[in-house]
Amino acid sequence: MGTLYLVRHGQASFGAADYDQLSDLGRRQSVRLGEWFAHQGIRFDGLIAGTLQRHKQTLAGILEGMDHAGGHLDWEGLNEYDADAVIAAIHPQPLDKPTSPEMVRHHFRLLRDGLAQWMAGVVSPRGMPSYRDWAAGVAGALDHVRANHYGQSVLLVTSGGPIATAVGHVLGTSPETTIELNLRIRNTSVTEFAFTPKRHALVAFNALPHLDAPELRDWITYA
Questions:
Q1: Percent helix, percent strand, percent coil in the chain, to nearest 5
Q2: 10-30, pLDDT tens digit by residue?
Q3: Which of 61, 105, 142, 206 is the most buried (most CB within 10 A)?
Q4: Do residues 35 and 55 share a domain?
């Protein structure tokens, strides 16, 4: 049996010109998670990450917290979908920068609707593959882990969409459930799979053991 830890990136820069950068808090979340892994005596035989900056920065923070050095495998199939393109497919007018809770809620209502239509094949967001092809990139990463890391511990750093898709793939959830899982995943949360060469099994989802202290409650974020 092997263990696969899927980690969502730390807090990124939602609403900024470049979302694909960790915030200062996102960097601290990442280092803190690495410290927790080290405290638990967890070491990784394999390191895999999407190729977005927030993935690489999160992995770097985790390794810093673990005082661990090592190369990792880049996996483009673990990159997040383009949320702006998904929204634009159903709402062509540009959205203003969110400056209030209601504007943020409106953004995510549109995202939920756009994801449902993309997954159903109703819309084709500009510059993106079909949902079937995009999800195949996530499934390919799971296949790679099973084929190459049996009996080992593997860390995989990615985004909420691929993690929800991986869970949905393993559990056979409906598209609606996969979307709800996606929108609930917290920054630097840990989802754990046990795996054999033939299958993965979900052990834990969206856990934040490294932030389980009253003084760290303000470190829990979603975007």
A1: 45, 15, 40
A2: 999 765 556 799 999 999 999
A3: 61
A4: yes
Query: Is the backbone of residue 121 left (phi > 0), alpha (psi -120 to 50) or beta?
Result: left
Q: Give the residue numbers spanning the domain of 18.
A: 2-80+130-219
CA distance 31 to 59: 9
- Confidence (pTM): 0.94
Query: Are 55 and 49 within 8 A, CB to CB?
Result: yes
Residue 48 and residue 140 in one domain = yes
- Amino acid code (one letter) for 120: A
DSSP, collapsed to helix, strand or coil, labels residue 202 as: strand
Q: Residue 67 belongs to a domain with what CATH number?
A: 3.40.50.1240
d(C-alpha 26, C-alpha 125), whole Å: 28
**Cβ 113 vs Cβ 83: under 8 Å:** no
Say how many C-beta atoms besides its own lie within 10 A of residue 120's C-beta. Answer: 10
The CB density around residue 50, as the number of other CB atoms within 10 Å, is: 26
Q: Name the packing angle between helices 160-171 and 175-182 (round to 10°).
A: 140
Nearest to 112 by CA among 170, 29, 180, 196: 180
Residue 93's pLDDT band, with cuts at 50, 70 and 90, is confident
pLDDT in tens, 117-176: 999 999 999 999 999 999 999 999 999 999 999 999 999 999 999 999 999 999 999 999
Q: Are residues 32 and 105 in the same domain?
A: no
- How many domains are contained in the chain? 2
Judgement on whether residues 47 and 148 belong to the same structural domain of the protein: yes
Q: What type of residue is 197?
A: P
